[in-house]
Write a structure and sequence with these properties.
Elements: H1 3-21, H2 41-49, E1 57-65, H3 71-88, E2 96-104, E3 113-119, H4 122-130, H5 144-153, E4 164-171, H6 184-193, E5 197-203, H7 207-219, E6 224-227, H8 241-252, H9 261-275, H10 279-298, H11 336-339, H12 343-378, H13 386-398
Parallel strand pairs: 1-2, 1-4, 4-5, 5-6
Antiparallel strand pairs: 2-3
């Protein structure tokens, strides 16, 4: 055998020996099939992980002529503010609403303007609106430019372009020409620059007012309407109003505000103002609070009834609404009804009022639901009224922001 053949034979034998000595390769483990998934289980899991869409936001400022000739509309607006808010809250999805107020007269009157910033606390809006009284005037032009200018420049409008921003300018006299920084046309253009729609409501038939009102409405893509001098608002009585007014009044007594004496007095006065609402306004207030509570996550079976105590101001706490805060309140900031009681008696008193309030709120919620059902079949339409015009403007503009009515 030659050397080449011998080398080949030795190499082949060595390779065979190595392969026979090597351990057998283990078979890969079987792949375990995933458990079966129900047809809708995956989509449910995705829905649970998906964050809730943010609520649309609507900011509305009423710029109101408060001279003597506007007394009828002003009193009507006070009666209808809850109704207007309740109407806006009917949007789908329910919007987060803020309302601001600017009153204007003219140079030489008791004041030229008064303003209250945007707020989502409707009871605060109502309390501020109550401070407006009609007076002064007597000459035709009013300082509309300053009223509009302060609404555009001095209130805390959102800078977010996705927030609907609207002004309702309401009056019966044209802008006065004043040698100051409040030129009407300048502030009309600034409203447009800030993406604020100005809807105008002319009360009465003054031609100069119509010209000015149409100018700013057209410039900002707003609406122009004419209504009667009084505002044309009609109270809508329902079979549920009297009972709702009684419940609303009873709820106002189920409060125990903390804080210094002056803070407690301010909150008690505010609650009393809610208790004295006329039947329709009391009903609309309960209806609005019910819609707001549902939009904030309280809808569905077993959900709590809406809290109807006014939001405490001045750093106070309503212990009936927040009984867990009782232990942390110092004696000097306790409401008078609790100061003379022992610790145990205080706790018992707060619990008693909280239970009574809960029962009243459940009753109010049920009555409000029945009232809404009645109104859906019996509500009269009056398209030339102030509140009807406000809702018409809101509905038209809200479509652009994904809110349907």
């Amino acid at each position: 055998m030659d050397l080449k053949s011998l080398s080949r034979t030795v190499l082949t034998a060595a390779l065979a020996t190595t392969l026979s000595a090597a351990p057998a390769l283990a078979a890969p483990p079987p792949v375990k099939a995933p458990p079966p998934v129900a047809a809708n289980q995956g989509s449910q899991a995705q829905a649970e992980k998906k964050p809730a869409a943010p609520r649309p936001e609507i900011e509305v400022v009423f710029v109101l002529d408060t001279t003597g000739s506007m007394s009828g509309l002003l009193e009507g607006a006070k009666a209808k503010i809850y109704s207007i808010a309740s109407g806006i809250a009917q949007g789908r999805p329910t919007p987060h609403l803020k309302i601001g107020l600017v009153a204007y007269r003219d140079v030489g009157d008791d004041y030229v303007t008064k303003r209250f910033d945007l707020s989502d606390d409707l009871d605060t809006v109502f309390a501020n609106l109550r401070r407006f009284t009609a007076g002064g005037g007597g000459d035709s032009p009013e300082h509309v430019g300053r009223g509009l200018g302060e609404a555009v420049s001095k209130l805390s409008w959102s800078q977010d372009r996705t927030v609907m921003k609207a002004i309702f300018l309401v009056g019966d006299a044209p802008p006065a020409q004043r040698n100051d920084d409040w030129d009407f046309k300048h502030w009309s253009k600034r409203a447009k620059d800030k993406h604020i729609v100005v809807n105008t409501v002319r009360c009465g038939l003054d031609e100069e007012t119509m010209t000015a009102w149409k100018y700013v409405a057209k410039l900002t893509d707003g609406s122009f309407d004419t209504i009667e001098q009084s505002g044309g608002m009609v109270a809508v009585a329902t079979p549920y109003d009297d009972e709702l007014a009684k419940v609303n009044s009873a709820l106002a007594s189920k409060t125990l505000y903390t804080g210094k004496a002056e803070v407690q007095a301010a909150n008690v006065a505010r609650a009393q103002a809610m208790a004295e609402l006329a039947p329709e306004a009391a009903s609309e207030r309960i209806t609005y609070l019910r819609k707001k509570q549902r939009a904030e996550g309280g809808s569905g079976a077993g959900a709590p009834a809406p809290s109807s105590a006014p939001v405490a101001v001045g750093g106070a706490v309503d212990l009936v609404s927040a009984p867990e805060k009782l232990a942390s309140v110092s004696d000097d900031e306790l409401p008078a009804d609790l100061k003379a009681l022992s610790t145990e008696a205080r706790t018992a008193k707060v619990k008693q009022l909280a239970d009574e309030k809960k029962a009243l709120e459940a009753k109010a919620s049920k009555l409000a639901e029945e009232r809404e059902a009645w109104l859906s079949k019996n509500r009269p339409e009056k398209e030339d009224a102030f509140d009807a015009n406000v809702m018409k403007g809101v509905k038209a503009q809200a479509k652009k922001y994904g809110v349907a009515y």
